[in-house]
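Materials and Methods. Structural model of Heterotrimeric G protein alpha subunit. The 371-residue sequence of Heterotrimeric G protein alpha subunit from Zizania palustris was retrieved and submitted for structure prediction as follows.
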Amino acid sequence: MGSSCSRSDLLSESETTENAKSADIDRRILQETKAEQHIHKLLLLGAGESGKSTIFKQIKLLFQTGFDETELKSYISVIHANVYQTIKILHDGAKELSQVESDSSKYVISPDNQAMIEPVRTLFAMLGFNSGLCFAWSFYNGTFSRGSILQLPDCAEYFMENLDRLAEADYAPTKEDVLHARVRTNGVVQIQFSPVGESKRGGEVYRLYDVGGQRNERRKWIHLFEGVNAVIFCAAISEYDQMLFEDETKNRMMETKELFDWVLKQRCFEKTSFMLFLNKFDIFERKIQKVPLTVCEWFKDYKPIAPGKQEVEHAYEFVKKKFEELYFQSSKPDRVDRVFKIYRTTALDQKLVKKTFKLIDESMRRSREGT
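The predicted structure was written out as tokens:
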């Protein structure tokens, strides 16, 4: 006589196995849920050209693996397009300005820069672009100085200074090139990181969402507003004298003011921390010596002091105060206790960006601990 199993015994074993599998799945789901709960959601907002995308790329370089060779090479066409766009803007701008201004000699290529024509010609030939434009690039005597009016991208000077290298047949972009490359964000991109390194114990993990800043992209923002731990709002303070790409009658700083005001008033952000990046300080520092803040309607009441470094700090503090006033005016009494921090940033400065995110991490940690 051998041993035997009844049908009920077999069913019992089967049920036990299924129950074990189900319990295992439940445990995994619970673990994943707990892990999700420990991931803090950051939303990166701002108008177009505010420097959000550069901040996003810096996070990848600083707190992740950076860009591999394939990713770097994928920027070749973007960088070459940036160069072409720059030269075309200056070419068209020079023609237009020479027709409306008395001293048209300012808008012809400088004799000191004749040697730069060949690299441009080489690059354009390689790209199959109109080589005639190579006589109209950013070292025109006067055209480059009118960059704000002509909607010249911030990357223009950097790429023009590196034309010889960009025109090489075996050109491979550097990390610095990628940071300068101008690409408009379409849709939503995200990245997960820890400012102290995910391998270190106690390090908080963040998931940063970046969305397009142009007006036609902002309708996508609302879907990301729920469950946000902190909003990082980028304001390009150097753009106080510039107009929008999508609306050349609208000052960029006024657009930023109105956008920041709108974001602050969203009900879902009542208890949400706000981190304001007053970005592009490096450009602001150079521009404020030549272009007065008062060209912007929001800054009409600004009173300059002596030129130099002291004036730069004075102007920056004035702009900072304007944003602080806007924050408190736009925040209801029951919202003013949410965390609000302002950071002076230059998105291209890796050390500064790293320091800033470590400060944000510390601030949010203290807030969660109630200290």
